[in-house]
Design a protein that fits this description.
The protein is α+β, with helices and mostly antiparallel strands. The protein has helices at residues 2-6, 19-26, 29-32, 80-83, 86-97, 107-115, 129-132, 150-162, 197-207, 214-228, 253-263, and strands at 36-37, 44-45, 50-54, 60-66, 73-78, 116-119, 124-127, 139-142, 183-187, 190-195, 235-239, 245-251. It contains eleven helices and twelve strands.
Length: 273
């Protein structure tokens, strides 16, 4: 009955044998996907549409709607930039369903339905679907495990790479490797892991057969330094095999515990030594 009224069929009996067929014919293309006209007559309500916000790296949104031609549920993943653009949302929906073109017959009307608009008579600010979908009961928030977050994956790879290098059993190791290879040494009274930051990430990229995104390397560095409360990592210089000075990053166990936390392998932030 409610669906019949929403389609403008106030006199349609719910037990009519062709009720579903009449409703389908009376519905607009958008209504056939599960959207509903707003109760006040201005704009649209999500109706059967649903949104899942996935707090991955980066955050993404998955829109769920009905494909009216198959009655199957279509899932439409989108980036933040796509979510903010009516045209790109329409393209992603068409791509996911193969047949649903929400811009038909009026792309301008779809832009207003998605982003909202200002009604002139009466003067009214009409909210769009992209805002309504981010409210209850239409939205679900999903927090994926650390392995689904790219910065955590990168941190885990660095942790595994550095974990190959063992600590010395005595205090005779006091010089960094002239090849630039990571090495635990005793320096200024404490055990430190000296390694070349850029070279380490380059080796990780080669092993994983793909370049590590520079932005994620910066993010790993930032997150570790936030835990260790450092503006930059300690560093030192040693001569390489060619006689030129090489810059090394100097880490202690405290930095590795912070890296574990970023990778999701530790229960919480690293504490003091």
């Amino acid at each position: 009955y409610q669906r019949a009224r929403a389609a403008g069929l106030n006199n349609l009996r719910g037990d009519a044998p062709d009720a579903e067929e009449q409703i389908a014919r009376a519905q607009t293309p958008l209504e056939r996907t599960g959207l509903r006209r707003a109760a006040d007559g201005h704009g649209w309500d999500p109706g059967e549409w649903r949104l899942t916000v996935v707090y991955s790296d980066p955050v993404r949104r998955v829109l769920s709607l009905k494909n009216p031609f198959t009655n199957a549920l279509a899932e439409v993943p989108m980036s933040t930039d796509e979510w903010l653009s009516p045209a790109r949302v329409a393209a992603r929906i068409l791509e996911a369903t193969g047949v649903v073109d929400v811009t038909d017959p009026n792309s301008k009307a779809w832009a207003g339905a998605w982003s909202g608009y200002t009604s002139r008579d009466p003067q009214l600010e009409v909210r769009g679907l992209k805002s309504k979908l981010m409210e209850e009961p239409y939205v679900t928030h999903y927090y994926p495990p650390p392995e689904e977050k790219l910065h955590a994956v990168c941190a885990s790879r660095l942790l595994n790479f550095l974990g190959r290098y063992t600590k010395p059993e005595d205090q005779t190791h006091i010089e960094a490797s002239p090849s630039g290879e990571p090495k635990w040494i005793y320096h200024e009274g404490q055990l430190e892991l000296w390694f070349r930051w850029a070279e380490a990430w380059s080796a990780i990229g080669e092993e994983s057969r793909g370049q590590i995104p520079p932005g994620k390397i910066v993010e790993v560095s930032k997150r570790v330094r936030e835990i260790t409360a450092e503006a930059e990592f300690p560093h030192g210089f040693r001569k390489g095999r060619t006689g030129t000075n090489m810059r090394f990053t100097r880490w202690t166990d405290r930095h590795l515990r912070a890296l574990e936390s970023v990778a999701g392998a530790a229960p919480g932030p690293a504490g003091p030594l």
